[in-house]
Write a structure and sequence with these properties.
The chain is mainly beta. It has two helices and ten strands.
């Protein structure tokens, strides 16, 4: 299946039936395709995606949209750990919950989660944005760089070097654009709080050794 999706010729719309939890499905796509997967998928679905829109009508295993460069990946159910890991660009939407390490080492992509995210989400995230409608698990944004996090629910156990920041008009505009791109339900933007790096761990400092 992946070989056909990676060399689509004249066909641009695909529907995959009964995936039965297959791993690494729809990986390495590099064309403006639309791929609908009718069912649950295993790990690393839609990894390394470029340009394509991949819609998973069910749950996704670990590493969905891992290392994505562009395009859109939507999961209508829940996503397991490390959703969107290391992704450089594009948009990942999880309509359910995302487990631990959502957005780990993010490098520029956007992730919108309609539910909760697990612990260590956005660990060492360098660039990009994460929006969470629900609660965030402990150690949110640990060792974060210049990525931005918006959380509507609870985020009371932040990781090292992650702090709550002011929510200014520019951030509300950014959030509004992200929610529109994700097709999110209408909510009051003032319900969200913004989190980011306090920039104490950028360079090794022996006085911060306990926080590394």
């Amino acid at each position: 299946m992946n070989r056909r999706l990676q060399a689509p010729e004249k066909v641009t719309d695909f529907r995959i039936l009964r995936p039965q939890g297959a791993h690494t499905l729809a990986c390495g796509l590099n064309a403006p395709l639309t791929v609908r997967i009718a069912g649950h998928v295993g790990y690393y679905c839609a990894g390394m995606n470029k340009q394509a829109t991949v819609i998973i009508e069910g749950n996704a295993g670990a590493g969905v949209a891992e290392n994505m460069m562009s395009g859109t990946v939507r999961v209508t159910g829940d996503a397991s750990q490390s959703a969107g890991a290391t992704a450089h660009g594009g948009l990942l939407v999880v309509e359910g919950n995302a487990a631990a390490r959502c957005g780990i080492s993010l490098k520029g992509a956007d992730i919108v989660v309609f539910g909760d995210v697990g612990h260590m989400s956005m660990f060492m995230a360098q660039r990009g944005r994460l929006v969470v409608f629900g609660d965030a698990g402990e150690a949110l944004g640990d060792s974060i760089y210049e990525a931005r996090i918006y959380v509507r629910g609870k985020a009371d156990k932040l990781g090292a070097d992650c702090v709550q920041k002011d929510m200014r008009d520019e951030h509300r505009d950014e959030l509004r654009e992200l929610l529109a791109a994700a097709g999110a339900p209408e909510v009051n933007l003032d319900d969200f709080k913004r989190y980011g790096s306090v920039r104490q761990l950028y360079h090794f400092n022996i006085d911060n050794a306990g926080a590394y």
